[in-house]
Write a structure and sequence with these properties.
alpha+beta, hypothetical protein tt1805, five-stranded mixed sheet
């Protein structure tokens, strides 16, 4: 099974968001080939939502799931702790008042 590299996926995701007019930027540049990716959705009201990608054995594909939400500052601290343990981690932050991560079809 061929997989997209983390770097390629992040570039494609940001390009899609740019085309939709959604502000997005890379907060942490992880391992280009196989780094884990977290998407932080900044709701612009002090809250945020974090999404992570995992592999589903049942469906034989990667899927995205919300794994944390709440106060943005607390989530930033959580991400900082994650980065201290995993230097290969990618963090992509987007701005979406509705909390939509725009992860469908990507």
């Amino acid at each position: 099974m061929n997989r997209l590299t983390s770097s390629f996926w992040v570039q494609a995701y940001i390009k899609k968001l740019n085309l939709l007019g959604v502000p997005a930027f890379v907060v942490s540049h992880g391992d280009d080939t196989a780094g884990a990716i977290i998407v932080k959705v900044n709701k612009l009201n002090g809250d945020a939502v974090l999404f992570e990608r995992s592999f589903s054995l049942d469906k034989n594909l990667n899927q995205w799931s919300k794994f944390e939400s709440g106060d943005e500052k607390e989530l930033d601290e959580l991400l900082s702790r994650q980065l201290s343990r995993d230097r290969d981690l990618w963090i992509v932050e987007i701005e979406s008042r509705e909390g939509d991560p725009f992860l469908d079809d990507i």
